[in-house]
Amino acid sequence: MIPFPKKKVPRDVALKDLRILEREYPNPTTALQYRNPYELLIAVILSAQCTDERVNMTTPALFARYPSPRDLAAAKPHDVEKLIKSCGFFRMKTKSIIGAARALAEQYDGVVPEQREALEALPGVGRKTASVVMANAFAEPALAVDTHVFRVSHRLGLTLGKTPRDVEDDLTALLPKRKWGNATHWLILHGRKICKAPVPRCGECPLNSLCPTPAIIARHRSLPRQPR
Questions:
Q1: What is the value of pTM for the model shown?
Q2: Is residue 78 a part of any domain in this protein?
Q3: Is 128 annotated as catalytic?
Q4: Share of the chain above pLDDT 70, in %
Q5: Which residues have CB under 8 Å from 134's CB, separation 6+?
Q6: Mind listing the pLDDT tens digit for each residue in 42-63?
Q7: Looking at 17, 93, 128, 170, which residue is catalytic?
């Protein structure tokens, strides 16, 4: 595993990194397909430890059968499990999405709330899920830290944060609020295209000259291999 940098890059370098990412990934959006805040909320819950592509293959049948929170709230868990099984952890996710739908139906008249506190109080919804919904469904300033954002921001030396919240705080301190949601997508897209796990494509990266990770990789590769 490639070690992360042990210190942050200077602020001016971090800002240049982010400007380059903004140029490389203009007008970014979530890869999850949805038509309204309810569909986005459920899709994000399903996306935990699952690809967006797989979720997009699953949700059309789910939403055709349960087009509103009230419909999903009344669903039988076994029926939902069959529809979302390919997303993994399907029993836990079934419990979460039915629970969230019930809360929406009973507490919010079937309408997804815009406020973070209310979103995070829904079953199956943590800070990351709430941030994705806020930024994409309601254009509220929110930055979501998933595995790509965590990895790429560390490799670039934008953060030394040990937790997703620490990383979020470091990134939001670098950007105006209006760019928080887009920054999530810049880092995710860069993580999928270039800064891959476990090995990044540094030779193709527009941030190569600014990033501390290529030097770390070079040192890592020059170390003698330990005998098995």
A1: 0.92
A2: yes
A3: yes
A4: 97
A5: 114, 116, 119, 140, 141, 142, 181
A6: 999 999 999 999 999 999 999 9
A7: 128
Distance CA 136, CA 115 (A): 13
Place of tokens 């005998």: 227
**pLDDT tens, 106-141?**
999 999 999 999 999 999 999 999 999 999 999 999
Domain containing 61 equals: 37-137
Instruction: Check: CB of residue 116 under 8 Å from CB of residue 156.
Output: no
Is the previous residue joined to 198 through a cis bond, with omega within 30 degrees of 0?
Answer: yes
**Of 52, 71, 146, 169, catalytic:** 146
- Residues found in the chain: 228
Q: Are 205 and 195 in contact (CB under 8 A)?
A: yes
Interacting residues of 75 by C-beta distance below 8 A, sequence separation 6+:
65, 66, 98, 101
Which of the listed residues 121, 137, 153 is the one where a domain comes to its end? Answer: 137
* Cα separation values, 70 from 67, 96, 150, Å: 8, 14, 35
Same domain, yes or no: 172 and 211: yes
Band of pLDDT at residue 226, cut at 50, 70 and 90: low
